[in-house]
Structures
1.
Amino acid sequence: MMKIPHRLYLTEDQMPSQWYNLRADMPEQPDPMLNPGTGKPVTEEDLYPIFCKELAHQEMDSTTRWVDIPEGILEEYRIYRPSPLIRAYNLEQALDTPAKIYYKYEGNNTSGSHKLNSAIAQAYYAKHQGLKGVTTETGAGQWGTALSEACAFYGLDLQVYMVKCSYEQKPFRKAVMGVFDANVTPSPSPTTEVGRKILAEFPESTGSLGCAISEAVEKAVTSENYRYVLGSVLNQVLLHQSIIGLEAKTAMDILGEYPDLVIGCAGGGSNLGGLIAPYMRDKLTGKSNPRIIAVEPASCPSFTRGKYAYDFCDTGKVTPLAKMYTLGNGFMPAANHAGGLRYHGMSPLLSKLYHDGYMEAVSAKQLEVFEAATLFAKKETILPAPESAHAICQVMKEAAKCRESGEAKTILFGLTGTGYFDMTAYDAFKSGTMSNHVPTDEELETGFASLPKLG
Ligand SMILES: *Cc1c(COP(=O)(O)O)cnc(C)c1O
């Protein structure tokens, strides 16, 4: 038997040249996006003022199974892909588990996360359409960083609305985006109508992703030759991220391994949707039946405590309505939550799969997440992003179950990025000032009260 190496790098020509569209194999489609004014399903043409054409097409295309990746995108991917598949031998040993733990590492590029996979694609299509620039929001800053790199590469202007508390807590993120000439505005801001409205009502607001999205969309539709781009949640983003899962599966196949469990953190669902894509395909087509687990923060529990309902994707209620697991567009995660993944909703595609019983979801508390993150850092020498550490936390729980049962399960998880810009959070954890926050049912009710009433 082949001795399994610590790291497996595919060669360049083993990198996929097509993305995989999971919707093509779903027995039932996610419910359509609705126009909030008319209550009617949104068409591809309706999206043209917001998204560039090719991306609007990808958003609505639920039948094309394999989508060619343009050469102009592959060229960029080759700078940092294929990304490695790593066997966590040291972690396994530390956990004294018979489980075999593999992770697909996406922190191996300058932006430090998987978000570059979709940023490159979206910037490429915008440039291809002859646009002048794009607008977006960023929470923790990874998406803004990835997109600013991609926009600088393709020569596009970029306007970023950054959630105000992150803008203040992570000045270096803003500085990195500045290196790539992005314009960064803390949100809520006085530069948009929706921002001014939120500031008038809540002058002390530290912002939320939903609020930054409203500002970025408004800016795009009121500026000539600009469109809006989003780093998660959307079908198009899950499509681009399928490269993670396709590469992981190719590498696992080479090793003769097949996961019993596939685990990923879930904010808006893009890395998870990408990682699980080929395995979910096997599951949907009856070829195999791996367990698939989404891990979310207990302080922002869309899957595990949210409602499956139509909701706005933003706080300002300017986006179409999507049917998804949501805490309500008015939900604000607690300020002491440092671990990212603070979006109120969840990918409609994953929401549908979860609703139909094809995957599971669990939540993890902040302190156990950082506990897992620091043990992982010591054993595997990579400082994980707090977001990624949610997955690590669940992997450790599953590995402990294997230790008790003696079962040597094969676990694959997504290590989505590095945490070098999250040192304030790591510091708070090490100095004991970090705390858990789990919202009460009453707190969640305030969020649910913001759900739109349909019909
Ligand atoms: C943005 C981000 C996430 C969460 O986003 P998803 O769309 O749910 O993947 C997870 N990890 C890292 C490192 C991120 O930057």
Note: The chain has a mean pLDDT of 95.
2.
Amino acid sequence: MRTYNFSAGPSMLPTDVLEEAQRDLLNFAGTGMSVTEISHRNKAFEEIVNEGEGLLRELLHVPDDYLVIFVQGGASQQFAAVPLNLMHKGRADYLVTGNFAKKAYEEGKIYGDACCVASSQDKTYSYIPDLATVPFREDTDYVHICANNTIFGTRYTQFPKTKAPLVADMSSDILSREIDVNQFGVIYAGAQKNLAPAGVTLVIAKRSLAHDPLPACPTMLKWNVQDENKSLYNTPPCFPIYIATLVLRRLKRLGGIKAVNEINEYKAGILYDFIDDSSFYRNDVVKKDRSIMNVPFVTPSAELDAKFVKEAAQAGLVSLKGHRLVGGMRASIYNAMPVEGVRALVDFMKKFERENQ
Ligand SMILES: *Cc1c(COP(=O)(O)O)cnc(C)c1O
């Protein structure tokens, strides 16, 4: 039996995608070989990469002057790739709204004058700073944000309008909501939350920004080199790219990002409405900044939190333990989490409340 898996990442993939992959595992696209065995230079695999790129362009309305590449090393590798591709003046501004945003900032400092221009650390990252008052500096190479803060359950509902190109880590909300790619210089995302198994990272970057990486930039981190080689500069993570393409096909069948966004708002609404009506459960994030992907919550005590996580798992609702930095619970409800999974969670929460008041 499949559980409802609320893990923050790697996370649930759509069951129909996994079934399709299972069916094709021994014989991919009529090659008589598994996609895990096939050469990445095989035409059938090249078609998968091209189709994946094409679907991303279509679903996210990526303009032609942006590159779309699949790379390795996770989102964390991009914390370094961003300065190594962009830091020509040696200055960049960072908004520190969570753990990953902070890691990106710390990595940026290795390569130049990275400055934290706004932070929400004073209140355990439970809000997004007021964008109108952020003291952006003049003459910087870029401004870095983390669009959705996976651990703390916040997200930007609007993005800052900056003079310098805006760079966004969208690992935990890529393809979950509509965005205007033109607002960004660079978008990157580890795939293991909303797109694919771990092992592949998506980068979308304006070509005019990506054409001139710093001399010290390792070849593998050069976005333009990856682009010129159509994500096949070296052996790519074939299986995750294949699954990503299946997930993207499914997104298109569902009606694209707009339709999926509506479902995601609906799912998150079920959970937040229940929590807000309850005097037993609490979510401490400023309401307007609440993530629709990651929903942290607590019961009245740490003991009950632990009991909740344990009993939920016995009921088939797994990986609800909050991140160690926050405690409590966290329900990650990415694209692949069905509405029924969220309903099952709320039903369990009601039952647990009755039994433990
Ligand atoms: C998961 C996550 C990361 C880290 O991704 P890796 O692929 O493990 O490096 C970075 N940023 C955000 C927002 C994340 O959710």
Note: The pocket of pyridoxal-5'-phosphate is lined by residues 9, 74-76, 100, 146, 150, 169, 171-172, 190, 193 (CB under 6 Å).
